[in-house]
Amino acid sequence: MTGQGQSAASGSSAWSSIFRHVRYENLVAGVSGGVLSNLALHPLDLVKIRFAVSDGLELRPKYKGILHCLTTIWKLDGLRGLYQGVTPNVWGAGLSWGLYFFLDLFLDYLEHHMVPFNLWRMNC
């Protein structure tokens, strides 16, 4: 019984020594950067999509350029129209950039300090 308790304690101390170097600030920085960049650039992404689906049908409005497209959307739907469909993009960008910053720096630390040989770049 003591052998199992000791191995569990040593296993938890190994995990605690690894996760002691985890910096959650990287996760927060990645999430906030992804969300803010998406919120800032979503209207331009919406314009790009509007131009892509403008296939000459009379049902869709014709746009003369980027500014004309933005002002038309603003006049018809307001701010809500410019940020139409932003929720899934914000979730995706925040999650992906947050995990990227978190895992990239964490795995980089493990590669250089904790792993005795290079697991990520093994040449066969």
From TrEMBL:
It is found in: Membrane. Transmembrane segments: none annotated. Belongs to the mitochondrial carrier (TC 2.A.29) family. It comes from Canis lupus dingo. One of its GO terms (biological process) is transmembrane transport. PROSITE patterns: SOLCAR. The lineage of its organism: Eukaryota, Metazoa, Chordata, Craniata, Vertebrata. InterPro entries: MCP_dom_sf (IPR023395), MCP_transmembrane (IPR018108), SLC25A32-like (IPR044712). Solcar repeats lie at residues 21-110. It holds the Pfam family Mito_carr. GO terms for cellular component: membrane. It is a multi-pass membrane protein. Keywords: Membrane, Repeat, Transmembrane, Transmembrane helix, Transport. This is Solute carrier family 25 member 32.
